[in-house]
Design goal:
Length: about 210
């Protein structure tokens, strides 16, 4: 496997490595190729470990030759993982990486029946799988997966949650201390995102005897 940028330059030294079935491979000096000796009919999982400053643009077999083939099946994890099923012959694979764009991600609360949005709850964003919080209005690199946590305070209900003005479904994470917690995942940022939680205060009913 050879790793290049979109200009065709070898960037093997700029990535963290390549793993074949979980085992790290070393790029041969000068060639930039990561190699693995498999057997016929093997199933091989190839995983790229690249920095956040790069995204995977494409995988090709026999790149630059008459038999060049764009690889689309078997890719996952934002194209960083490729599963080879039933290996039949030697494979010469070229992975092309690109520098990602950045986009603004914004969150907000629209409150109904109260004067302050913070009375209704809060929204927090994290890089998925980490505790790294993302501030609303921040620039986020393309393809970043974001975990959104919405907390609705006691006495309030969520009317709807919109992403770029489109209503989406939230996952109910449970509740505590009378509050309700919901989650939403952005599976790879690809444009500016504006998320708004519409929260409504429950009417207060007073009974007199």
């Amino acid at each position: 496997i050879t790793v290049k940028d979109t200009a065709g330059n070898d960037i093997s030294a700029n990535i963290n490595g390549v793993k074949f079935n979980g085992d790290a491979a070393t790029a041969a000096a000068g060639s930039g190729k990561f190699t693995y000796a498999g057997k016929k009919h093997d199933n091989i999982t190839v995983t790229l470990d690249i920095p956040e400053s790069l995204i995977v643009a494409s995988w090709k077999e026999n790149a630059g030759s008459d038999s060049e083939k764009l690889i689309t099946d078997g890719l996952s994890n934002q194209k960083k993982t490729y599963v080879i099923s039933d290996l039949q012959a030697d494979m010469d694979i070229t992975v092309t990486c690109d520098i990602p764009n950045s986009y603004i991600v914004y969150t907000g609360i629209r409150i109904y029946g109260a004067s302050s949005a913070s009375d209704g709850g809060s929204i927090k964003m994290y890089k998925n799988g980490t505790s790294t919080e993302i501030e609303s209005g921040s620039n986020v690199l393309q393809s970043t997966v974001i975990r959104v946590i919405l907390t609705v305070n006691d006495g309030y209900d969520i009317k709807k949650f919109t992403v770029n003005k489109i209503t989406v479904e939230l996952s109910d994470k449970g509740s505590g201390d009378g509050s309700k917690v919901y989650t939403y995942t952005i599976d790879g940022v690809s444009r500016d995102i504006n998320m708004i939680a519409h929260i409504e205060r429950r009417p207060v009913i007073t009974l007199k005897a």
